[in-house]
Amino acid sequence: MRPYVPDVSPFRASVYALVRSIPRGRVLSYGAVAALLGHPRSARGVGTALSGLSEGHDVPWWRVVNRNGEITSPRIHHIAALQRKLLEGEGVKFRASGRIDMKEYAWSPSPDSRTD
DNA sequence: GATCTGACCACCG
DNA sequence: CCGGTGGCCAGAT
Question: Is the model's pTM score more than 0.70?
Protein backbone atom coordinates (compact mmCIF):
# COMPACT_ATOMS: atom_id res chain seq x y z
CA MET A 1 0.00 0.00 0.00
CA ARG A 2 1.42 3.26 -1.08
CA PRO A 3 1.87 6.24 1.22
CA TYR A 4 0.05 8.81 -0.83
CA VAL A 5 -0.91 8.00 -4.36
CA PRO A 6 -4.34 9.22 -5.27
CA ASP A 7 -5.40 8.84 -8.86
CA VAL A 8 -3.15 11.38 -10.47
CA SER A 9 -1.75 11.96 -13.88
CA PRO A 10 1.80 10.76 -14.44
CA PHE A 11 2.85 14.36 -14.77
CA ARG A 12 1.59 15.26 -11.32
CA ALA A 13 3.01 12.08 -9.87
CA SER A 14 6.45 12.90 -11.25
CA VAL A 15 6.24 16.46 -9.93
CA TYR A 16 5.41 15.22 -6.47
CA ALA A 17 8.19 12.64 -6.62
CA LEU A 18 10.81 15.20 -7.55
CA VAL A 19 9.63 17.78 -5.03
CA ARG A 20 9.76 15.09 -2.38
CA SER A 21 13.42 14.62 -3.18
CA ILE A 22 14.35 18.25 -2.56
CA PRO A 23 16.55 18.28 0.54
CA ARG A 24 15.66 20.29 3.58
CA GLY A 25 16.86 23.88 3.39
CA ARG A 26 17.08 23.87 -0.40
CA VAL A 27 14.69 25.12 -3.04
CA LEU A 28 13.85 24.69 -6.71
CA SER A 29 12.04 26.95 -9.14
CA TYR A 30 8.87 25.86 -10.91
CA GLY A 31 10.71 26.04 -14.19
CA ALA A 32 13.59 23.97 -12.85
CA VAL A 33 11.25 21.25 -11.64
CA ALA A 34 9.57 21.16 -15.04
CA ALA A 35 12.91 21.08 -16.84
CA LEU A 36 14.24 18.27 -14.68
CA LEU A 37 11.17 16.25 -15.55
CA GLY A 38 11.80 16.75 -19.24
CA HIS A 39 9.06 19.36 -19.70
CA PRO A 40 10.98 22.65 -19.92
CA ARG A 41 7.80 24.49 -20.86
CA SER A 42 5.57 23.23 -18.12
CA ALA A 43 6.46 25.55 -15.28
CA ARG A 44 2.83 26.51 -14.93
CA GLY A 45 1.86 22.89 -14.87
CA VAL A 46 4.08 22.46 -11.83
CA GLY A 47 2.25 25.26 -10.08
CA THR A 48 -1.05 23.69 -11.00
CA ALA A 49 0.11 20.34 -9.68
CA LEU A 50 1.16 21.81 -6.34
CA SER A 51 -2.05 23.78 -6.02
CA GLY A 52 -3.96 20.54 -6.33
CA LEU A 53 -2.40 18.93 -3.28
CA SER A 54 -4.87 17.51 -0.82
CA GLU A 55 -4.50 17.03 2.90
CA GLY A 56 -2.32 14.34 4.32
CA HIS A 57 0.24 14.44 1.56
CA ASP A 58 3.96 14.31 2.17
CA VAL A 59 5.08 16.76 -0.47
CA PRO A 60 7.27 19.65 0.68
CA TRP A 61 5.60 22.08 -1.69
CA TRP A 62 7.08 25.08 0.12
CA ARG A 63 10.49 24.29 -1.36
CA VAL A 64 9.32 25.46 -4.77
CA VAL A 65 9.53 29.16 -5.56
CA ASN A 66 9.70 31.15 -8.76
CA ARG A 67 12.84 31.74 -10.78
CA ASN A 68 13.66 34.92 -8.83
CA GLY A 69 13.51 33.24 -5.48
CA GLU A 70 10.20 34.88 -4.71
CA ILE A 71 7.13 33.27 -3.24
CA THR A 72 4.30 33.28 -5.74
CA SER A 73 1.75 31.32 -3.78
CA PRO A 74 -1.70 32.82 -3.25
CA ARG A 75 -1.45 35.38 -0.48
CA ILE A 76 -5.17 35.53 -0.07
CA HIS A 77 -5.08 32.03 1.33
CA HIS A 78 -2.20 33.00 3.63
CA ILE A 79 -0.32 30.20 1.94
CA ALA A 80 2.55 32.53 1.12
CA ALA A 81 3.13 33.45 4.76
CA LEU A 82 3.10 29.79 5.72
CA GLN A 83 5.57 28.97 2.98
CA ARG A 84 8.01 31.62 4.13
CA LYS A 85 7.71 30.42 7.68
CA LEU A 86 8.40 26.83 6.74
CA LEU A 87 11.41 27.82 4.66
CA GLU A 88 12.86 30.00 7.40
CA GLY A 89 12.30 27.09 9.74
CA GLU A 90 14.67 25.07 7.55
CA GLY A 91 17.32 27.75 7.64
CA VAL A 92 16.51 29.46 4.37
CA LYS A 93 17.13 33.17 4.72
CA PHE A 94 15.19 35.87 2.95
CA ARG A 95 16.83 39.09 1.87
CA ALA A 96 15.39 42.45 2.78
CA SER A 97 13.72 42.43 -0.61
CA GLY A 98 11.79 39.38 0.50
CA ARG A 99 13.60 37.18 -1.96
CA ILE A 100 15.78 34.11 -1.57
CA ASP A 101 19.32 34.02 -2.92
CA MET A 102 18.88 31.33 -5.55
CA LYS A 103 22.62 31.13 -6.13
CA GLU A 104 22.90 29.75 -2.67
CA TYR A 105 19.76 27.71 -2.15
CA ALA A 106 18.86 26.40 -5.58
CA TRP A 107 19.28 22.65 -5.54
CA SER A 108 20.25 20.29 -8.31
CA PRO A 109 19.53 16.54 -8.02
CA SER A 110 22.79 14.98 -9.13
CA PRO A 111 26.30 15.71 -7.79
CA ASP A 112 26.13 18.53 -5.28
CA SER A 113 23.30 16.85 -3.43
CA ARG A 114 23.68 18.04 0.14
CA THR A 115 21.01 15.86 1.65
CA ASP A 116 21.49 18.00 4.70
C1' DG B 1 -13.73 19.26 -27.34
C1' DA B 2 -14.00 24.39 -26.63
C1' DT B 3 -12.91 27.86 -23.24
C1' DC B 4 -11.10 29.84 -19.05
C1' DT B 5 -7.79 30.13 -15.33
C1' DG B 6 -3.36 30.37 -13.14
C1' DA B 7 1.44 28.71 -6.89
C1' DC B 8 5.32 30.35 -14.59
C1' DC B 9 8.71 32.37 -17.72
C1' DA B 10 11.11 35.14 -21.29
C1' DC B 11 11.28 39.34 -23.74
C1' DC B 12 10.72 44.33 -24.44
C1' DG B 13 10.28 49.28 -23.50
C1' DC C 1 12.27 48.19 -11.15
C1' DC C 2 7.67 48.22 -13.13
C1' DG C 3 4.19 47.18 -16.34
C1' DG C 4 2.56 44.92 -20.68
C1' DT C 5 2.64 40.91 -24.04
C1' DG C 6 2.89 36.39 -25.81
C1' DG C 7 3.71 31.64 -25.22
C1' DC C 8 3.22 27.22 -22.73
C1' DC C 9 0.68 23.81 -20.51
C1' DA C 10 -2.09 21.04 -16.87
C1' DG C 11 -6.73 21.29 -14.76
C1' DA C 12 -11.31 22.66 -14.19
C1' DT C 13 -15.89 23.70 -16.10
Answer: yes
